[in-house]
Predict the structure.
Amino acid sequence: MANICLIEDEQKVAAFICKGLGEHGYKVKTGKDGASAKALIQGAEFDLLILDVMLPDINGIELCRQIRTNNTKTPILMLTALDQIQNKVSGLKAGADDYLVKPFHFVELLARIEALLRRQNVNAMEDHLLAFEDLKLDTWSNIAERGGSQIALTAKEFTLLELFMRHPNKVLSREYIAAQVWKIGFDTGTNFIDVYVNYLRNKIEKGFKNKLIHTVIGMGYILKAEK
């Protein structure tokens, strides 16, 4: 079932939503302000984000806009007590996919969530062709190429490259890479992540002037273009 991130500073509302979603099989992580939202989003993958507009440290619409600078695909549902057209328009322009006015019936919230997740699943089926600079990846045929030349990758190298290409310009920690590619926790006493990243680098960067995978000391790795 889907993983949902809920950012809501009203404890009773958050508890009400978490209880209802939990009963329907959803996994929910919660935060009460913009700072906790950014920490949660950076540390985990979510299938849906629910953001309250009125947060203590930042306007939810501005938070949505900031999230969209690095995350263009995860559906965002905005919650607000303000039933004004301008607020809805501002939220949608900031990158929200849907808008729900408080107070609401839980069944309506559930219907909105299910609709957004269905739409996301359809988009995911179509999103099998990835590209970054001159690097291309077809996740259906498992073909990788750069500059028109095909690159032979092992299964893990392909999965690792796909992870980078689905999160361009974002630092990925070793812990996150281990969890996503190998489905295990990262042991700080090993260097297998570094070894595989080097394998991948050698294959996609050999013969090319511009490097694509960069080390961020003390944090992890990032796929970005050299300036």
Remarks:
- Residues 106-126 form the longest helix (21 residues).
- The two ends are 40 Å apart (CA to CA).
- The mean pLDDT is 88.
- DSSP finds eight helices and eleven strands in the chain.
